[in-house]
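User: My advisor, Dr. K., asked me to get a structural model of this assembly before our group meeting. I'm new to this, so sorry if the format is off. These are the inputs:
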Amino acid sequence: MFSIVINRCWAMYSYKQIDPSEYRVLHPRPAYLIVSRNGSGRLNVMAASWVSPVSEEPPLIIVAIGRGSLTREYILETKEFTINIVGEEHLNLTFKAGTVSGRSVDKWKMLGLEELPSKYISVPGIKGSYGFIECVLNKVVEAGECDLLFCEPKAIHVREDLYTRYGWDLKKAKILLHIGGRAFTIPGKLLLAEKK
Amino acid sequence: MFSIVINRCWAMYSYKQIDPSEYRVLHPRPAYLIVSRNGSGRLNVMAASWVSPVSEEPPLIIVAIGRGSLTREYILETKEFTINIVGEEHLNLTFKAGTVSGRSVDKWKMLGLEELPSKYISVPGIKGSYGFIECVLNKVVEAGECDLLFCEPKAIHVREDLYTRYGWDLKKAKILLHIGGRAFTIPGKLLLAEKK
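Assistant: The format is fine. Below is the predicted structure of the whole assembly, which you can bring to the meeting.
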């Protein structure tokens, strides 16, 4: 009965075809700040939302990074970076980090960032972020105009006031999700699926 | 001035370390329904949120799939699948698709799904989904307990009433985001970053 009712409604919708490169169909998705450091100790920061866990045991995360980016150069040099989880209050910071190149300006200084020390690697997190993951590069796989960086998370630090045993407390943690361009959103109401 | 004010607040937060396998730190993120078909024409469906665009030119998408899953078997056999974008109204459907194995039951029938025909591949989309991507398997890379499937999107179909030239119309498209377990959320308010 359930499926019959649903299907009667579904029959009304019409679909249109859009370009296969329209990646925004897979957005909104979390936006992160990636911090990297080169061999001379210079820090850089960029925004990225093409990031995903890909394995739990052992834990592995992938980050897709444009082949021409300074962050990619730094990570290939030192094999270390941090993924910083950010929220609504980091909206303008994240957009700026994602639209200015570290080749033309010292973004770390320009954005007034301060370091949160890492435990296992030499690259810091960003003070005030919701949390950050200490990542060590594991392998690199070519993927079109990007390189896919496989990384091993060595440690995860989260703000004590925002993270519970069930994950982020979304009443407090306004996790930033990127839609496209200047447009972002944050999680809205909580939905609980029926028990099996 | 901006950064000084921010940093003064940031200094107050304290952080705790959590296990490096705590992938939920990268959630909430979109939940999708992956449809696959084996050589005999049997359809299967599963839920996945470890999915990401990884290149725009050429377009490439990755999907992380457990090595023991039936969906992985089917995709390796026929090299085709669809990624279906779903919303709040697909909450229970998505949770069920993600918690029942296709080895023990015909999930397609159990869930009362109907086919939306694809244009280029033999695997259909799901009628009533917000949209779906026709995917052809490009390569497979091992990633811990999962295989990372690289796919070429051959066509994307979206519901005409939900998709605009700027992407999903989030006033209407309640894109389903997975938090963990039975908990999901949908995008809330729109945030616009300041112009540069």
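One thing worth pointing out at the meeting: Chain B has one domain: 23-185.

User: Perfect, thanks a lot.
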